[in-house]
Amino acid sequence: MADMLMIFSEAAGETYVEPASFGFIDATVWVSIAMAIFIAILLWKKVPALVAGMLDNKIAEISKQLKEAEQLRLDAESLKAEYQAKLTAAAKEADEMRARADAEAETLVTKAKADATALIARRKQMAEDRIAAAEAGALADVRAATAKAATDAAAKLIADKHDAKADKALVDQAIAGVARG
Question: What's the pTM value of the predicted model, to 2 decimals?
Fold first, then answer.
């Protein structure tokens, strides 16, 4: 800035002179002395040690947070692995349950088919037994009717062809057979 003032003053035809104290100390020297005193006070009050201590504390805190974050990351990874293992086990168990259910369903279907086949066979046998019983009953009825008809026909024929004389001869013959015998 002093250079600018010199340029403007020279342009105006004036010369610029820097102010000085005690004839030889100008503003730059005063700033240097003030800075040296300030740095000396800082060193005397141990400000760099305080700053270093604060920085060390901050570094320790950050390091602690990093260690906690690392531990949390490890915990999260272990939890993730645990839950992945549980998920895998659950999926495997679900597959096993599905396989057992399929096997049970297949067994039930096979058993139902076998039961249905057995039921059909039993009902068929029952129907055949009923038919056979009905046939036997009908055959017995026919035989009974045939025997009755034959008996009736024989009785009628005997009654028509035999009279008292023929009966007497038969009775005498039967008595003679009994007497010999």
Answer: 0.39
